[in-house]
Amino acid sequence: MRVVVLTGAGISAESGVPTFRDADGLWEGHRVEDVATPEAYESQPTMVQEFYDARRASLAHVEPNAAHVALARLEDVLGDDLFLVTQNIDDLHERGGSTRVHHMHGELRSALCRACERRFPWDRTLVDLPPCPGCGVTELRPDVVWFGEIPYDMDAIMHELKRADLFVSIGTSGAVYPAAGFVQYAARHRARTLELNLQPSEGTSFFHESRQGPAGTLVPLWVDEMLARVTP
Ligand code: BV8
Ligand code: ZN
């Protein structure tokens, strides 16, 4: 049984990480579409760096919730038959115990050098223009995929969606592409599709089944169902 799980901001909501849509699209006073773009970084680098420095620092004050921990339990049993891809840039899946997490929109705890194009684990601020650990140039930016940029791991993701028996979308509004299109692609390749979300997402009609409720409750229940089916 090959399972692909896609998560969005909703899975981290109960950990205290605000979602994009529930904050009425405002994030620390910014519309995410206005600050998560290369143009915004070019025109207001300090504002964008401070926006991400604040989010990186806030990771120290949040904890994974029961949904993250349940997905780690599922990975323990399914191993390589589980492919976890997240739109989130927080590290809560890893801290919840998942060991193979595909961050298609990048990660807060990583920095990307615009000079040598290498990525480095990063836990401090970037607004003070620290030198790149690799080439020494002071051109480090947040290692996140902004609007108009190409998501990471797309080849692997599409390959897994083609082979999936089950595609499960957790805590995402289905507002951002290409992630919002994964359900249709998976269904076209004969996967069963399930949505676990606080309320029906924009793409809810594309799912065979959709359950409404908080991820902290729905995900452990769903993982228990899965484990009952796959463990003798
Ligand atoms: C690309 C990183 C080409 C930065 C992010 C016109 C039409 C269609 C598409 C486009 C268009 N114009 C431009 C595009 C493309 C564009 C796009 O989709 N724009 C949208 C606005 C229309 N996309 C891109 O530019 C992407 N790149 O297309 O390149 C390409 C394509 C294919 C292959 C190769 C190349 C890049 C997009 C990445 C942008 N970066 N994040 C950062 O984080 O700062 S996006 C960011 O917003 C997140 O990563 C996430 O993807 C998105 C927010 O979505 P969600 O995670 O779903 O969060 P949201 O708040 O929206 O929803 C939360 C949900 O949880 C809600 O439904 C809520 O009910 C639920 N919930 C709340 N609490 C709970 C809960 N559920 C369960 N339990 C709870 N407790
Ligand atoms: Zn460099």
Tell me, briefly, the overall form.
Answer: globular
Strand order of the largest sheet: 5-4-1-9-10-11
> Which CATH class of the largest domain applies here?
Alpha Beta
Category by helix and strand content: alpha/beta
How many alpha or pi helices? 8
N- and C-termini, Cα separation: 14 Å
Structure characterization notes:
By secondary structure, the chain is α/β, with parallel strands linked by helices. It has 2 domains: 1-16 and 64-105 and 151-232, Rossmann fold, CATH 3.40.50.1220; 18-61 and 106-144, SIR2/SIRT2 'Small Domain' (2-Layer Sandwich), CATH 3.30.1600.10. The protein has 8 helices and 11 strands. A 6-stranded parallel β-sheet has the order 5-4-1-9-10-11, sandwiched between helices. Helix 4 runs parallel beside helix 8 and helix 6 (154-163) packs across helix 7 (182-188). It is globular, with a radius of gyration of 18 Å. The mean pLDDT is 95.
Characteristics:
single chain; SIR2/SIRT2 'Small Domain'; 2 domains; six-stranded parallel sheet; three-stranded antiparallel sheet; 11 strands; 32% helix; binds zinc ion
